[in-house]
Amino acid sequence: MKRGARRKHPRGGTEMRPEYQFDYEKSRSNRFAGRIQAGAVAVLLDPDVASVFGSSDAVNALLRSVISAMPERGRRRAKAG
Fold first, then answer.
1. Where along the chain do its domains lie?
2. How far apart are CA 43 and CA 53, in angstroms?
């Protein structure tokens, strides 16, 4: 966008435009794609929570210990498929 140009819609507006124009020549591949394991799910942690853990392995270890401490009735099973 050129400097001084005005936006028709303010940022954060909830209205979708009927069409968006993307310049695919300027796009780049995802440099982190090779790090993602098959079947992995991305979860965003709040900064204060993330600062406690050094890695995703540490987060997973804690969550597994919490899951094992939960009563069997309270656990939801992942759907196969």
1. 45-73
2. 14
Residues 8 and 21: their CA atoms lie apart, in Å, by 15
* 53 within 8 A of 59, measured Cβ to Cβ: yes
Taking residues 28-48, report their average pLDDT: 86
Q: What is the pLDDT of residue 81?
A: 47
CA dist., res. 66 & res. 68, Å (int) = 5
| 44-59 pLDDT per residue, tens | 899 999 999 988 899 9
